[in-house]
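Risk register update: the risk that structure generation would not scale has been downgraded. Supporting records follow, first protein first.
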Amino acid sequence: MKKLVILTGAGISAESGILTFRDMGGLWETYRIEEVASPQAWQSNRQLVLDFYNKRHMQLFEVEPNEGHRALVDLEQIYDVTIITQNVDDLHERAGSEFVLHLHGELKKLRSERNPDLISDWGEWELKEGDLAEDGAQLRPHIVWFGEGVPMINQAANIVKLADILIIIGTSLQVYPAAGLMSYAPEHCVTYYIDPHAADAGLSSVIAIPEKASTGVRKLVDELIQTS
């Protein structure tokens, strides 16, 4: 069974109504990233950070996976599939994907601010100052903030090294270290890039599919199933 690795970014979730940081009308137009998504922000203005993530968290209970998420599940019938996502939502899991690695954390989980390995589920409620982990430390969103290390990046790179097929979906390929993962693909690997701006990326060794995820993914999935 061929190994198929999928790298997804904000573009696939944007079609479900989740705001992105980089696109026009995205979160960067409302918030300065260092004010809401950095360790310094957590120390200097915790309430603003809590308000920001509480809004993002509660939105997850209002959105649903889209056709892009659902189409990827069909690949598991004939390929060994792993999804590596930059997204912090749970839409891949809710669509039915079995193996999902979250590079930048998960917005339905919390962790101790003292022990990053002490992780718990975050249900449909707002996180407040004074909500404590089992070790007595303040709970914080289980998110990799700007300026923090990406603990899953080595595991992700090792997965990409095994890929026979790599599909990149809805990412600008500008956020590192995630953007560098495609360089770990072996020489025989066939790489596809699905994004409205894919044709402008200038990647000569990549098959560009300049469409949004909900349409481009379904077309590619059907093609890969038929030619497998």
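Supporting record for the second protein:
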Amino acid sequence: MKKKLVILSGAGISKESGIDTFRDKDGMWKKHDAMKLASIEGWNEDPQAVLDFYNARRRQLHEVQPNKAHQLLAELEDWYDVSIITQNVDDLHERAGSSHVIHLHGELAKVCSSIDKEKPDCIETRPLDKDIHLGDKAMDGSQLRPYIVWFGEPVPNMKAAMNTAFEADIFVVIGTSLLVSPANTLTACSGASHNIIIDPGEVDVPEGFLHIKETATIGMEMLFHSLLKSVNYR
């Protein structure tokens, strides 16, 4: 029986693919007003500005590829039962081949109703090179909006993420500052006997976590080989 490996990933893993982060010293929220571009109040005030921001991010995603860290996580499915909980709205985990990904903050490749974001028949995948325009309608006749969890909105997949973290044998945090709530509470939900955080910065390491102070790609290469040795020694 495969051991349960649960990953909590953040912007740091996608940064190495060329995707801008939000909270770094040169991140997007240093250049833009988050409440104007990532809140329901901002959407109601200026939907065109919000659409322009996410259209640009979607086009950027079309131009980048999964990196070695994404690929190694997908490869680990050969030996482990891997579940990925991601704060990222990109699709790089899926494009690398990971088969079980829980998105906490939505998905950039999807659009939805502006009346009921979680209405199943109003959520659709959007080609990454196709913008959303004012006047584009969801199936319920409302304006299409990005399928993103904005500030102040509930996180629909949080319960599933908590349950997944609790089931972990090994819990790994990659590329997140653990400053964003409620995602940062997942470390306390871990039921794992081995807890690891991979981040090159000075982070507030949760109690009981081993800190691998490397970038996502280097740290994942180190962890990958360690996990394979563990399988071979069973």
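The chain has two domains: 1-18+66-105+155-234, 20-63+109-148. On this basis the risk owner (M.S.) recommends closing the item.
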